[in-house]
Write a structure and sequence with these properties.
11 helices, 337 residues, mainly alpha
C-alpha cells in the first residue's frame, strides 16, 4: 500500500463523515415520507430512527475492524501475486455469505422460540444477549492486547504460509486454503457478532428498521474498504476507532436502559419509580437515550458506564506497565551549553 500525505486521509475521513450524515438524513426523510410530514424526533412513532443510528454505528464499527484485519493480512501479499490475494478475497466473500446464512438460521430459531415463549420474555432474553455482545466489543476496544493479539495472529499465520511456500514446505493447495481461511475468519467473526446483536432490534422493531441500519453501516464500511484496498489511501484509523468507540459507549448506555425496562415489563426485575425525578425527565429522554425515572434502569446504566470507564482505566494502566517511558538521561554540567 502506498502511503499518501496525512491530509489525504483527513480529507477522506471528512468525505466519509459527509456520506454518513447524508445516509442518516435519507433515513429521516424516509420516516418523514411514511409519516405524511416532517419526522418529529420526540414522537413515539419515530423511535426506529434511534435504533437505526445504533445499528449503523455497530455495523460500521465491526466493518472497520474487519477492514483493519484484512489490511494486515493483505499487507505484502501483492508481491506474491494473485495466488495469495485471490484466496483472501474468496474467503472474505464466503465469510459474508456465511454471515447471511447465520442470520437466516438465527431468525428461524428465534421465530420458533417465539411460539412457545412470550414476546416480552423473548425480547428481554435477546436484548440481554445484545448487551453482552456489546460489552464484549467495548472490552476488546479498550484492550490493546486484543488488537495486537488478533491482528498479529492473522499476520503471523500469513507469514508462516508464505514462508512455507518459499521453503517448499507448504503446497499451493495448502496456501490457497490457509489464506482463504484467514479471509473467512476476518469477516465472519465480525458478522457473527452483528447477527447476535441485531436479533433484539428485529423482535422489537421489525426487519425493515434493521435493514436500514445495516445498509448505512455496510455503506460506510464499504467506503472505507474501497479507500483502503482500491484507492490505497492511508486513513486515520486510530481516530476513527476512537470516534466509533465513544459512539458505541453511548449505544451501550442506551441499550442497557432499554433492556432494564424490558425486563421490568416482563416482570424479571422490580420497578421502583423515583417520583421527584419522574417530573424532571421528558419523554424524549426515554425515547432517544432510554433514561427512565426508575432505580433499576438508572442503576443498570450507571454500572454499565462504570464497567466501560473501568475497562479503559485498567487497559491504560496495563499499557503503561507493559511499555514504561524510557528513563531520562541526566547530562553532566560539562555537556550543557
Amino acid at each position: 500500500m502506498t502511503s499518501l500525505p496525512r491530509r489525504t486521509g483527513s480529507a477522506a475521513l471528512r468525505l466519509l463523515t459527509l456520506a454518513g450524515c447524508l445516509a442518516v438524513g435519507a433515513v429521516m426523510v424516509w420516516h418523514g415520507a411514511i409519516s405524511s410530514g416532517n419526522p418529529n424526533p420526540f414522537a413515539a412513532e419515530t423511535s426506529p430512527s434511534a435504533a437505526i443510528l445504533d445499528i449503523s454505528v455497530l455495523v460500521f464499527r465491526e466493518g472497520l475492524e474487519c477492514v483493519l484485519v484484512l489490511a494486515a493480512v493483505m499487507a505484502g501479499v501483492d508481491r506474491e501475486g494473485s495466488r495469495s490475494r485471490n484466496p483472501v478475497v474468496i474467503g472474505a466473500g464466503l465469510g459474508f455469505a456465511a454471515t447471511l446464512l447465520t442470520w437466516a438460521v438465527a431468525v428461524r430459531v428465534v421465530n420458533d422460540l417465539s411460539r412457545n415463549i412470550s414476546a416480552l420474555a423473548l425480547q428481554s432474553a435477546t436484548g440481554l444477549l445484545a448487551v453482552i455482545v456489546l460489552l464484549i466489543v467495548m472490552n476488546w476496544f479498550f484492550h490493546k492486547l486484543y488488537w495486537t493479539g488478533w491482528i498479529s495472529l492473522h499476520t503471523r499465520r500469513k507469514r508462516d504460509l508464505l514462508d512455507g511456500v518459499n521453503r517448499e514446505q507448504t503446497s499451493q493447495l495448502g496456501l490457497f486454503w490457509g489464506m482463504g481461511l484467514l479471509g473467512f475468519t476476518s469477516l465472519y467473526r465480525e458478522g457473527f457478532e452483528v447477527v447476535l446483536f441485531l436479533q433484539s432490534y428485529r423482535l422489537r422493531l421489525g426487519s425493515e428498521t434493521v435493514l436500514w441500519g445495516v445498509c448505512i453501516g455496510v455503506f460506510l464500511s464499504g467506503t472505507i474498504a474501497v479507500l483502503t484496498f482500491v484507492a490505497h489511501r492511508k486513513l486515520p484509523y486510530r481516530r476513527m476507532l476512537v470516534l466509533t468507540g465513544v459512539l458505541l459507549g453511548v449505544v451501550l448506555i442506551v441499550m442497557v436502559g432499554e433492556q432494564a425496562q424490558e425486563m421490568q415489563l416482563a416482570h424479571w426485575i422490580s420497578t421502583t419509580t423515583i417520583t421527584p425525578f419522574a417530573h424532571l425527565v421528558p419523554s424524549w429522554m426515554g425515547l432517544w437515550f432510554s433514561i427512565f425515572p426508575t432505580v433499576e434502569t438508572l442503576l443498570a446504566q450507571l454500572v454499565a458506564a462504570l464497567l466501560v470507564l473501568g475497562s479503559y482505566v485498567v487497559a491504560g494502566r496495563r499499557s503503561a506497565t507493559a511499555h514504561p517511558p524510557p528513563p531520562k538521561i541526566a547530562r553532566s554540567p560539562s555537556t550543557r551549553k
